[in-house]
Structures are given as structure tokens and as C-alpha cells.
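Appendix B. Raw example, untouched.
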Amino acid sequence: MTAVSDKCVVRKCDGSGLIVVVNDGETIAYPCPCREQKKQLRKLDTAKIPLDLQDATVNSFEYEIYDEADNVQKAKIAKHFAIKFVENYCDFSEAGKGIYLSGEIKGSGKTRLSVSILNALIREYNVSGLYITSVNMLNEIKNTFTESSNSNSYELLKYFGEVEVLLIDDLGVEKVSDWSEEIFTQILDTRMNSKKITIITSNIGIGNLDSKYKNGRVGSRIEKMTFPLPMPEESVRTKLSLRDNEQIINKFF
């Protein structure tokens, strides 16, 4: 019988991923459930999910934390839609329809809810995913122009265009130029034509994207490939931070 170790996250094997039993003198080995969990964790790491959000779930998104009644209602609707999106992912995937979470106020929960959706899709549907901010996306491509780079822009553009679920966070905070707009257009075009799911958060309403991206091609593609989901116009970041600090004080002091 396999010895149980803390190296196994479900404490059923010795950390090797195999459960070994002896039955009537015959040794039998079969996969431990920790294998699947390790595979999911690797996918979360590969998806570059921020560490503090890797355990974020759609069901744990709190709409009651907002103060204003209309913001509570917006958050409640957003949570309900997120749950339905995850439950009906195959239908959304077939239609190539993602989500565009928008709200002018920073810290309103856009990133938290969008990452929760990506977490759920990775865990429940075993999809390949990627979380990246719009600024980092452009910077990664720019970095390929240096002589010391081990990758090239074609490979990155191909990856951004083909990953099953792409989450672009904070679209619109980057400095817009003809080059950056062309980059986003290429990525969105590839994803739209192949019906890949794209989730986007932004401080810009979906109907106002043309005021940022003057050529009009970014906004038109996003309108076609995502469902607009307005988020509360209220920051809860400070409130959550204070609550976390209070929990630490209560636990250790």
C-alpha cells in the first residue's frame, strides 16, 4: 500500500501521483486524484493568473459589499451572468462570444470577477487560458525587437491569437499609437475569425472605444466578439483590504 504524504494535496498517495495497493499478492497502481489537481495548478501558472486570485471563484464574488443600491444590483447581475457564462461555456464558445466588463471606477471588481471566470473555465473545462494586461501584452511584443530576445513577435501574436481563452485586463490604459492599435486589431481579428473566447476589462464603455482607438477597428471587433457587462461604479478595493487586515489581526493578535 502506498504511504500517504503531505506532498499529495488530497493525501491519498506519497506525492508520486500513483496509489499502489496489493490485492491477493498482486500489486496494482492507479492514478491519484492529485494528478488532475496538479495539472490544473500548472494550467493556472501557465495562464499567468495573479497568485492572489488563483483561488477566486465566481460564486464567492460578493455583490453585498457595495454601498449604493444600484451598484449592488449591477454586481448581482454581473455575478449571475458570470455563473451562466461558465455553466454554458460550450454554447458561448461555439458562438465565439466572450465578455466585456466595463466601469469607469478603478477597484470596482472587474479584474476579480473576470479572473474568477477564467479560473472556472480552466478548472471545469480544462481549457488553455492566459491572463495579461494590455500594457504587458504590448511590452512583451516590443521586447521581441531586442537582439537578446529568445522569442519573436510572430510567435507571440500567434499565441495571443490562438490561446483558447484570453483575458485582456485594463484595456485602454496603455498609450495608444497606430502600432499598438494595429497589434490589438491583429490579435482580435485572429480570435474573432476562429471564434476564440476573449474576456476584456476596461474603464471605457464598449460604445466609447472609438474615442480611444481612432481607426475604429478595435471597437467594432470587440462589439462583435463580446457581450457588454457593466460593472458597479464604486471602488471596493480599500474596503476589501481593510477587511483582510482585520482578519489577520483577529487571527494572530
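End of appendix B.
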